[in-house]
## 1
Amino acid sequence: MESSLTDAAAQTGQNRRVMKSRTVITQGRSVTWRAGIRRAGALLFLWLLVGFSAPSAQSAAAAYTTPLLGFHIHRGDAAHLGAAHTAGGRFVVLVFSWEDIEPTPNYFYWERTDSALMLAEYFGLGVVARLDRPPAWARTQSAPIPWREDAYAAFVQRVAARYGARLDGVILWNEPNLSLEWDGRVPDPAGYAALARAGYAAVKSAAPELPVLLAGLAFTLGDGVTAVNDLDYLTALLALDTPFDGVAAHPYGFGAPPDAAPAADRLNFRRLELHRVLLERAGRGDAPIWITEMGWRKVAPDPADAWQAVGEARQAEYTLAALRLAATYPWLERIAFWELNGERDLYGYALWEGDGRVAPAYQALVARAQTLCGGACLPAGAVRTDAEGSVVLLERDVRIRLGDIGTLHPHWVHLLNGGDAFSPTWAHEFFLTEQQAATLDTLLVETMQVDQPSNTVWINGTLIGRLAPRVRPDPTSTWATQRLDVVPGVLRAGVNRVEVRVGLRNPARQFSWWRWENLQLRGMRLARAPEVSVAPEWRWEPLPALPGWGEVSRLRVVEDVQAGPSLWVMTNRSGGLWHVTGAELAAGGPVRPMAGDETLIFTDSLSHEQGLLVATGEGVRVQPVGTRTWLRVAGAPERWAYALASSGGLLYAGFESAGVWTAPSPAGPWRLSGLPGRSVLDLVEDGAGTLFAATDQGVYQRTEYGWMRLPDPGFPD
């Protein structure tokens, strides 16, 4: 096999210049093999003759398309994507980690991949998604696939359905010919073929035009146990009729010059040509090859790999030489170097490790890019907007959970940092054009369960506001849209950063195991505030009040036969009960604190002939007429009470997870009226004797047969 493959590879090398015209698709455009050869030959001559002299427009275009230059990147943030663009990259390879996106079955976390796509589009970079790194829950003991085939297919189908044409392609798995990438088992081509077959069908069902690539194989001679020879493995996959549109490849240099001759028993860059021979022999010469990992090690962190290290100077030399050689392969559409990693490359390639830590090879690529684009390598500057022209920072189906409690309720997602890991901050990068930075002035975000005004929102290091608490501390888990003003000068053209930081809970509601706010975010966007014309006679004026006013959760107007109407105000703080009569309000008098007990949080009030009835965080209390003392009522639950009402001569109170309770008078006795186990958030009587209850499981009406649930109105979420 060695001699026949080597001979065929030699013929493949000759065919670099004489192959017949064939049509392939590159970034949505049809180009011919013959046209690719002409461009490659012109580019090679240019490099050999004048090095980095200013190119013509045609040669610059050829450099960017024959093949496309890209980089495997560690993270899809502005720094990594900007580094890829600066070095002349036209695409990036990025891992779409299954375990990060779906850590628990059917819980999907798209924030990182959404962000990466938006940032890449700004730089004009295509994205090739590598779909692997399975979660533990998907593992199975059944042979020959270590992971649930149906679960993987469902995952890749979701990726394809979500991103579709926004991706340049998807790679099904990574280096399955290594036991390291096959759950520690002996690599099995038949098992991977089955996995790829399921993945291919899943992608095509959602995005028929999205290119699907076989996993890049590790170039290895193999021992048959921890690694299978890449040539043998690819031969087996082709014999199994594994479906694919293209083949990913990892032709690392292994310390040899890029022009070192290929052979079946030799590891080097041109071993790639042997892969091409196998494709042609199997009748798949139509399939392009995309290099998604390659490069030369500067150093060898592991002494066992010292034979692969070439030093900085040769790394740069070999990198540019490989690009020249790659331009002569008409079947090679893309070439991506390993790796841009701002958190340090542990393998010794270290092209770019952040500002100030760049290899000469990376600098050479930057110089090459500047030369090819005439010194004007500008990003595309594309910023995605919604139908209203708002810049979307966080999609509505992407939820971010912050806080210190990881209990997973059905309507909640995992903490941002996973499990019970304290997650105090969410940060997100986004780009704006100059016009957007100058005109957008409003941040909109949907929030769930904000209890305290201690949660802050920052843009570019500037505090733009605090998230307003929900109307009362209820467990409904409903979404509310918050609107924050963004003052001029905060936003800027180019990269921006938004942060949401959770704060401490009210001291009265802190526990040793629960001290911080726990909330969720979604649907964040930057918009332009609408032009609203308000008649001058209609305007909001703040009520005068003593220190401590704020976080209003409930207003009640009480009609008194003798004193007239008065206003009761409840705030979401301990001791937050306030009162003002209509006459006092008309005279400009202040709203007075009426709590008396600074430990209680008041959520509702109801006037009764025997005194004032209030709902609090510790149950229902009554203040008898002529006193300032709050008394417990007999028989009612000692837990959060949210709402009070009177109907048919009876008093009603709604509680958290305890239903509706009723009594003939504040003194009681109180007994359960209905809806046990439900959280009752509001009670209202329609004036005709019918009582309604809003709960965490819908709206109920009290009838002679008991509490009956009203039909679901079909509200979203």
## 2
Amino acid sequence: MESMDLKLPKESQSQVLDINLSKNTVSDFYKSVLEDLPSNGDDGVLLYKSFDFDSRRQEIIHIIEGTNFKNIIILNGISESIEKSTLQNISVTETDKFRNHSFLLISSPKINYAVISTITEDDIQLLNPSTSTIITQSPKVIDLYWRNISKQVGISYSDFVIHDSENTVVDSKKIVFDVISKLDSSRVISDRRVFELSSLLRFLNSISGRFVEDEFLYKYEFKVGEEYFNYVDNPELVLFGGFGITRGINNQIIKILPVKFDPSAQKIRLYKRIIFRITYSKGGTISAQPYDELLSAAFINYDVARFWQKKRKLLNKVTPQNSVLSTGDWVKFEAPDEGIYKLDFNFLLSAGFDPSAIDPRTIKIFNNGGKTLSENLLEPRPVDLVENAIKIIGESDGKFDQGDYIIFYGRGSSFWDYDKNSGEIKRFRHTYSDHNYYWITYGGVTGKRIQDKAGLNTSPQYNQNSSLAFADFEEDKINIGKSGRDYYGDDFSQAIISRSYLNTLNGRLSSVPINYKFRFANGSSGNFTLQVSENNSLIFNGILNGYLDTPYTAGVTHSRNAVFTNTLPDNRSVLKFSIIPTSVTTVGYLDYFEISYSRNLKAFNNNILFFSKDTTAIIEYSLNGFTSTNNEVFDVTDYTNVQIIDSVRRSGGDIKFRISESEGNVSKYIAIGN
């Protein structure tokens, strides 16, 4: 019988398989392997690791009996005798030839399935050579980067690099390298080789001319193309390359071309010595910049060029003069959600203030809005804390009594607001902080107070009894690439293929569709299918591409939209995200989702937030659902200058008021009761 030599394929395939499949028990793994094999009655060879088969041989034989393989031979790496199975088509061969070697599982001349693993680990992989894919593997298998598996009768392996679970090259373990060709009557493996990994790579290099680089194997082939003999080399020996400025020094790349090739004459001319002169322009300034070690290695004439370095323009640091924080007692606190807040006597006491010693007319609250500062340095921005308008009940007597309290508008680091640049209501979420802090102090001049905003008594041009409303979800849990500002939330994989998210859409108008916007990241190289459903109704089904073999890429983000037109039981949104994995390496991450819908102007828990219609008109707003006439409406469009609407008509739990609105300036209101 001729053995099959280790040989390289004619063409190199670049396929990376990243596998991570767990089985509860070794028995479950064996069973799943055999279930994956086609039952076509071919011969099979089964080689088990000695310590495992000895304890489970009857169980394993029972599993094998359920297959349709003929003449299955079990080669065991232990010299002790093994009882034969009661079935005639299964024979057990005793041999210590492969003692202490890893096992090779099931291969036949027609099926061409095989498994390869390291000696020292309890691991196994079942491969399909015809498609170069892994069918299944055991829990501790080391990932193999396969380039090609021969489709000939039997199996040959080539072009691979072994990696461990931490994705680092295994450089010290031996590799069991089994090659099975046509089986002879004795049913033994025709060729077995054991390599040190370094020896194996040297062997592959020696017969292929390939080399190992960056943990991968590359193949370089040189072919004479159609334009080969039309090639004309650049006649110049010295050329100007690119121009640039590095740390204030103008620099010019000089290209030197000492090799000239004439393909028609099949000659190469090599210049051993080239002399050229560089002439600099006159003028310029001499500077006295300090020595820069980085630049000294970048420029061949840095000793002179350092004095041509232009002075760097630095940003001017703005330091507020007489900052509000320079005097007085200050306490920092958080407003986690958007709404109208109440601070009473006990709050001031717990903050460390003595309320009885405070003149409430001098109490002040500061905050800068909770939005991320613009990266455009030319846009205006506050240089100090900004005072916000507040209202204090009971301040007129100059004392802060037990029944006195402060009312102010607060919001967290994520909220919805009108954006004049886009002309839309959008979600603002602070990139660098999960908290929006407020500062309270007292003393000195009188503090800024909430003013009244006059309502109108003229006839309305538009009656508004609904508003856009929003719900959203975003959590920052993982930075996939460990770089940048993009963080993602819940993960999806073969272990967790779906997650559901609940939101109550109070006052939702069922006649108006719900719009969804979501962002999902594919953190794997291959594609997978994403499905999104609302209350078990599918609203999105699409394929999200992976990053393939793109270097320096950890994932691909996909922003998508969906619409739901049906009714919601109890106005409760049950949004379910599901993936259909294509491999065990499939992984996805939910970045965020946003829900926008139309709602009526009914208060829930004596509270409602709503926006004006983007139009120029006198609008009459009709609110309902309050438990009493003890309520107020706040215009919170400008967070620093909140106003209270007067001339409000109240009847039971209903509120009506009229305001002149203008297009391009959407107003935001909050109405509260009690």
